[in-house]
Input
Amino acid sequence: MDSAYYSTYDSFKMTDMDHPSIQKPVVLVLAGHDPSGGAGIQADIETLAAHGCIATSVITSLTAQNTCSFSYHLPQATEDFVTQCKLVLEDIKIDACKIGAIGSPELIRAIHEMIAEKPFPVVLDPVLHSSTGHDFANEEMCALLCELILPFATVITPNRDEAMELTEEIKPQAAAERLLEMGCKNILISDAEDSETKVINYLVQEDRQCQTFTWERLPGSFHGSGCTLASAITANLAKDIELISAIEQAQEFTWHSLNHGLQLGKGQMHPNRFFNQTENK
Output
């Protein structure tokens, strides 16, 4: 390229003083990558963007999956993961953190060391299995999650099966009580009760207050609904929205995302996390 191009380019470069300060909340996402885009870190980023937040992200594991099936997951090397997290945290003020599928015991230990002393709220979506049937966690990892991550999470969002697996309880209410005993502060168990027509989510807080939220059950199966819910809660907490309102608004956002779901592949539907933009066209 000739010198005229560089001269023109230089004239448009901005100095540090020209950049406005960031006003949007910033969320750190720690989750796996889903190539189909329905779940995982891409689902988190879309949800955060739809809520007016900026996402910083560190991938816990790579996966080979689509809307129909899951082949494998490959956890990131712990040293690389820690380096990436440290660089983000040293440079950027984080307003909240969302944790999804982790992938290895070593990464659980690394995340514990990172969040144990941090002042921002943490939302944990304890992904133990993919919606297409792959296991993300074994018994050792479940035990480590309970010991090292759950007590430091502001909110955890297991579905009914995950809550029961973590606690070995057979009823959602008993599972929630057991999770409180493990040190959890607020537990939202999604799809906690069997119903063909309703989705019933069950919230238990640290002070033992209980609340249920009931939503119309939508037809079909969705890829990334849990990621959407947890990230929406995280976004709301990053925006300093009060806890109950943050959780209720996140459920409403998730329901509408599913109601406007997109059939991209041959299997599960993608939540449409930008449904508001679609409606306004």
